[in-house]
Amino acid sequence: MARIRTIKPRFWGSGTTAQLSRDARLLAIGLISMADDDGRFLCSTKAVGGYVFPNDDELQTRTVRRWLTELEQAGLIHEYEANGIRYGVFPKWHEHQVINRYTPSVLPPPDVECSLRNAGGKH
After folding, report:
1. What is the dihedral of CA 63, 35, 105, 79, to 10 degrees?
2. What is residue 121's predicted lDDT score, i.e. its pLDDT?
3. Which 3 state secondary structure label does DSSP give 13?
4. What are phi and psi of 40, to 5 degrees?
5. What are the phi and psi torsion angles at 43 (to 5°)?
6. N or C: which end of the chain has fewer CB within 10 A?
């Protein structure tokens, strides 16, 4: 379930963010609000597009895919598959988000180790 999230002011001026297109930056912010308390989210292009851009009827899934690829290449997200379903995770989620009432993720864990400092409800 989406929660209120914090965007650090340095997000906008970081070198990583500067490499992204404007629309990929907007998508990153949308994914931050879409992610659960472990930084995981359903990463199908339709799910992402519908959540982040619900009023943009003309938005094509290949455009969302291009932006997701930008975010992954920049290292902001990691995409993975479990049981035939695409998921995404913010690898350094717990370094950037303080969770008040932690709820463990119901989504499968990523296939790589992510920054889990303070994970498990000890936020």
Report:
1. 30
2. 40
3. coil
4. -100, 150
5. -115, 25
6. N
